[in-house]
Each structure stands twice: as structure tokens, then as C-alpha cells.
Here is the input.
Amino acid sequence: MSTTHRRTRRRPGENRERLLEAGLVEFGLFGYHGASTSSIAARADVPQPHVYANFETKQQLFLACFERLGEQLTAYPSERPSESLLRFLYQSVASSAAPGLQRSMRGPLLELSASLGESRFDSLLAAGARALLEVQPDPRPGARA
Here is the structure.
């Protein structure tokens, strides 16, 4: 007789939070076009359909992650952001020229730059580029970072 392990029920909104955190990591590592909703769901330990139950599109998930980034950077201005946030900031700027994201990202990026100050924004952006360069590849065949 086989017993299946049932996951304990999560509190309301927990899957959304997990998806946002996983999205920050995946988009930060692979960019908007390189990250997949299936890899985000796997990192969040959430079934893939929950991505679209919480966000209508991949773009909406990305924009929600950007909103979270802005909240984190402005709420704790003197703290050094996590590597995930730094990489995501860098990838956000890189993705802002993409035709599907250009309209949605330009304004918020300029607002974030203004609220942080150009010098701090530039410093965080450079730190994000360094953090991306320092990602160690996973030695397993076919594995992602």
C-alpha cells in the first residue's frame, strides 16, 4: 500500500508571495525572456497552474516583481539589497527595451531612479551587473543556475 504525502495547506496569499520571490530570482538570473513560468513555479514549489491563477501573464508577474523590488529598495534605503534584488534590477533595465515591456517599464524605472537618486541607482545597477557575473554555474548536466 502506497501512501502519498499531502502538503499542508498554505495560508491565503502564500503561493503569490512564493511566486514573487521565485520570480525575482529567476528573472534576475535569466532575464525576462530567459526565465520561464515553469521554472518560477518549480522554484516556488507551486504547481504551474498557480502562476496563472495569481498573475494573468508572465508580464504581469514580471511587473509585480518590479513593484516588489521598488518597495524593498525604497523601504530600506541604507541596507544593501540581496543579490537577487540586485540582479533583478539589472535585468529590469535590460528588459525595458523589449517591445512588450517598453511602455510598462520606462516610467517605473525612471521613477525608481528618481526616488533612489541617480547615484544610488547607478551604484545598485553596477552591483547587479557584478552579482550576475558572479553567479556560479550548476555543475549538473542541463541544470540552470
Q: What stands out?
A: Helices lie at 14-34, 37-44, 49-54, 58-75, 83-95, 102-116, 118-133.
